[in-house]
Amino acid sequence: MIDLATGAITVLDHAWIGDGRQVFADDGSVLLGTLTFMPQPVLWNPVSPQTLNLSRTPSLARVSHNKAKVVYEAVTAEQRTLVTYDVTSGVETVLATGPGSPDQFPSHFYPWITNDGRTVLLMSTDAAGVRQAFLISSVGSNPRQLTHEPEGHLGSDSQRIWQFGIRSDAARTAVADRHHHRRGDGAIASIGANFFDLGCSGRVAGRVNL
């Protein structure tokens, strides 16, 4: 790790949990896993690293900017589970479950968490079994289906590939879904993005062709 203010370099005996996204908190803490036989999740900082006593082994994890909540996905052969962990109290909440897998990757839920730790964006299946984007509070209340794409977020012919991101402040949450349309030869024909302003109507606020 490089301190951009001082140039100091710190070598960490830790690793990312999953893809390494949304792992930095505003106070400089970093969500990492120890390099041990049974990796232990930790919010690392040079003064007082905080061990997280998760009940399951995470395959992917995110931390909110304010370090209030961690959301993580755990995988067993029987079940995939999406869980939030309250950093202060240690209380966990199961947000969603999915089919089990012998492999940790790719992620089933691919979660993101808002800066204030109150809302989680995830992928899951709708009533028709099609993968869509959903929002849910980090305490498990107010689940809401955000998208209603007929082909879902990874079409059976792999013509539409989706990526998600989420950001928020105390007043507003914005979600962007970015999608690629592929031609039959595998080349990308077009890239676009929809932006949902959830502080207002919650509908698509704009579209950008990239």
Secondary-structure blueprint of this entry?
Elements: E1 14-15, E2 30-34, E3 41-44, E4 50-51, E5 58-63, E6 69-75, E7 79-86, E8 92-99, E9 112-113, E10 119-125, E11 131-137, E12 144-145, E13 160-168, E14 173-182, E15 188-197, E16 204-209
Antiparallel strand pairs: 1-2, 2-3, 3-4, 5-6, 6-7, 7-8, 9-10, 10-11, 11-12, 13-14, 14-15, 15-16
Kindly summarize this structure in a few lines.
By secondary structure, the protein is an all-beta fold. About 0% of the residues lie in helices and about 45% in strands.
User: Shape, please?
Assistant: globular
Give a short account of the largest sheet.
Answer: 4 strands, antiparallel
**Helices and strands: which structural class?**
mainly beta
Whole-number mean pLDDT: 79
* Tally of structural domains: 1
- Element-by-element helix/strand order: EEEEEEEEEEEEEEEE
Query: How many separate helices?
Result: 0
The residue fraction in helices comes out at under 10%
Assess the beta-strand content as a share of residues: over 45%
Low-pLDDT runs: 155-162, 179-192, 199-210
In whole angstroms, the N-to-C terminal distance is 33 Å
How many beta-strand runs?
16
Strand order of the largest sheet: 1-2-3-4
